[in-house]
Amino acid sequence: xxxxxxxxxxxxxxxxxxxxxxxxxxxxxxxxxxxxxxxxxxxxxxxxxxxxxxxxxxxxxxxxxxxxxxxxxxxxxxxxxxxxxxxxxxxxxxxxxxxxxxxxxxxxxxxxxxxxxxxxxxxxxxxxxxxxxxxxxxxxxxxxxxxxxxxxxxxxxxxxxxxxxxxxxxxxxxxxxxxxxxxxxxxxxxxxxxxxxxxxxxxxxxxxxxxxxxxxxxxxxxxxxxxxxxxxxxxxxxxxxxxxxxxxxxxxxxxxxxxxxxxxxxxxxxxxxxxxxxxxxxxxxxxxxxxxxxxxxxxxxxxxxxxxxxxxxxxxxxxxxxxxxxxxxxxxxxxxxxxxxxxxxxxxxxxxxxxxxxxxxxxxxxxxxxxxxxxxxxxxxxxxxxxxxxxxxxxxxxxxxxxxxxxxxxxxxxxxxxxxxxxxxxxxxxxxxxxxxxxxxxxxxxxxxxxxxxxxxxxx
Amino acid sequence: xxxxxxxxxxxxxxxxxxxxxxxxxxxxxxxxxxxxxxxxxxxxxxxxxxxxxxxxxxxxxxxxxxxxxxxxxxxxxxxxxxxxxxxxxxxxxxxxxxxxxxxxxxxxxxxxxxxxxxxxxxxxxxxxxxxxxxxxxxxxxxxxxxxxxxxxxxxxxxxxxxxxxxxxxxxxxxxxxxxxxxxxxxxxxxxxxxxxxxxxxxxxxxxxxxxxxxxxxxxxxxxxxxxxxxxxxxxxxxxxxxxxxxxxxxxxxxxxxxxxxxxxxxxxxxxxxxxxxxxxxxxxxxxxxxxxxxxxxxxxxxxxxxxxxxxxxxxxxxxxxxxxxxxxxxxxxxxxxxxxxxxxxxxxxxxxxxxxxxxxxxxxxxxxxxxxxxxxxxxxxxxxxxxxxxxxxxxxxxxxxxxxxxxxxxxxxxxxxxxxxxxxxxxxxxxxxxxxxxxxxxxxxxxxxxxxxxxxxxxxxxxxxxxxxxxxxxxxxxxxxxxxxxxxxxxxxxxxxxxxxxxxxxxxxxxxxxxxxxxxxxxxxxxxxxxxxxxxxxxxxxxxxxxxxxxxxxxxxxxxxxxxxxxxxxxxxxxxxxxxxxxxxxxxxxx
Lengths: 460, 591
Known about the structure:
Helix content of chain B: 25-40%
Radius of gyration of chain B: 28 Å
Low-confidence stretches of chain A: none
Mean pLDDT of chain A: 91
Distance between the termini of chain A: 86 Å
Oligomer: heterodimer
Number of strands of chain A: 22
Number of helices of chain A: 13
Structural class of chain B: alpha+beta
Largest sheet of chain A: 8 strands, mixed
Radius of gyration of chain A: 25 Å
Largest interface: A-B, 78 and 78 residues
Distance between the termini of chain B: 101 Å
Number of strands of chain B: 26
Low-confidence stretches of chain B: 587-591
Mean pLDDT of chain B: 92
Strand content of chain A: 15-25%
Shape of chain B: globular
């Protein structure tokens, strides 16, 4: 029988102080009996002598200092895992929210996990074909990578993430990805979009969903992604599955973190976010990867909505420092009607070099990728110049580059919501666009590839 | 062993009482899980302890044991090719012992105490020795000869020394000193927060050749210098650091991955045994030590990792080697300082960083340098420190970047716009600087060619001019420029694309020797001069621009090292092309 305390001395925001407690441990799970039929959960944030500072996941509304009963459970927050999780929807704390029964866990796992030994990691190098040219051709995703989508409010990040989840394949296999979906503070409609899309395509059969909606307790969001990742680790490293983890929206997660930090009156870092936010985010993102000798992998696609489309906002900035690249969505392209509105210049996949080339995609991939980038950048410059000085001020070459930039956006970046291009189609499309430019400008491509792949149609 | 009790646990900070006998910076073991921690504050008999492992599950009342020793590293053969965490626990052995994930409370020595090494004496019985003298050597890897030095505080006459197979804890020699006979083992320990002593600090004079064109030619760092690489995310800090670790002409590389991605360390671990050192022909791993404290590993150990790394680097410097230390990223280290400082409830300085941030950064970079080592032979060693800085939003006005710029002599400023154009390395040539230029010039003109400095100056001028001319073009268009200015623009474009741009993933382009660098830049500038002459002689500008030899200049970067003939032929083709032009030009004038 666990000891019950009725010594709550203070409640403020998401925090509660319990006094005269014995044997408490830092980080342990706490149950608070608010009334006969309502039990809430919390976690020890600080153990100071006989005083415990507890973070309440479900808020403090209705909590009475005199009547609340507190139990310390002597363990961290755990998730019961089993293969029965597949096809199910849970709330942000791992309880079923689809009306189905409780799952019978194969075992219980602490959701914080231990860091992966860098020596045990296997370098991600298997190309994932998402069927989206702007990703496959230029910002290639590989198995075990963490590649976030930096978006803004009103941009189609949900559609893009769902399309990736739907189309992602490893070349040469029919093996599909399992999807673990962690939603933090998103609206019902957005969550419903994913769930319906998974149902429509049958992906739900190999998906596990953890959903904390906008009106669910905010502090619960701190545990939601860890629940999702714990489930993913179980599927990947114990059940040999290839798991794609979609986490949306990290911005809401960071705000919950800030709320707790502010309530503790910690010295704030930038914009009021806690100084340890980098470490905290890293403890999530670093759970992507591959491990030597294990078949499965975890590929992470976190989604962030950048406040005011600001790339230097701390949440975005710190994420960019941890993840292996980023896919940046641009409002300007969205307005032009381009889907997916991926701004390829500031987008980046750091692991692409190991996932492309001969034997993975095609030998000419790296060179054409660099060339397309350089040409598009130059084309955009030319267009900027033309906007100030008029088209006439451009040199012949610059005019070609400017035309190239337009075509590139319209034909290469732009594609249908259901359009699934193979990597060959993407690469060939790249070459086709390069015919708009004079051959001597193709400096970043090896001559042998130019001879082998460049279509014969030269510009007049 | 003294024993205290935990009174408070808050994240990585534990406060314990009953610690009156402990000293500041003593290493302690926390709770019966024996987690490793270090005392960072003492008030009465209360000690604040930063714990190097996850503290979940610890609570008040649990014991704390002091070890009475400061945080130290083990120094002996076995350092090379090792991969350590922030407090020198070998990650490969942790994996063998507990599996894929790092569990808590693992105690492992940094050096294998069982392995035997072949020790060859360099002194004989009867020789008198002082601290720093080389007693003998161990061939640690095919390229590194590990020199066993007389430990600090030992001075006297060698009584006994012999060749043979020894473990690092076996006695290899005995020395008769004024306070009796001292046994000497290959293993020594050194507290990481104290710099290792040397006889004298000297000014650096030789360049650290990195094979990276923009660095060697425009912003070189000296052996024994300090450099920093600040840049926003995605600008290629880590690639620059990896490239330096790969190609720098150092004897020893210590690479500290401090609070960065796990996969980056994996990349080093996978690539370095495969890549060969252009100087020795041996795998790069044979001269490398890795310290990896990735961002998901405990934050306090991240704080220590920088010191662990630099102490190992100093140890090799003391043997008389050129050592380069890469720390990626010092910002994460500073953030760890900030986190601990916040938990200690210290009064914050700028942006929540502790007020002592600047002095800690300065102390770290000051451990770099060229020194005369201890010992009678007067050998010299250098330690070059290269730190990456990750300023939030790429904004260099933040405290870590500012504190670093005050002490580092070389600044390679990475630029997000260049990175977005895939111009790599994205080092912005207009804002970067090296304070070693003049000092190294002399050496370079001796070892490479006398015009090395002149080429650089002219190229830099052109790049400066380009920035100004581009302003004009943006306002009034290219037609407003004189032919001469247009030529300058074309040449600087060629410097940027054909010289500064360097592809780290291209098998040839990844490394360029100083000699080839000079030839490449000379070709671009020779073309510039010849073009100027031709245009002045009446040749049409477009005709010059259409010369095919320009493509050959652009492709010089892909010509493998030592194919001098192909490099030289570019100059001949250029001569021929211009000769052809002027003749044709004269022809036109006649017509």
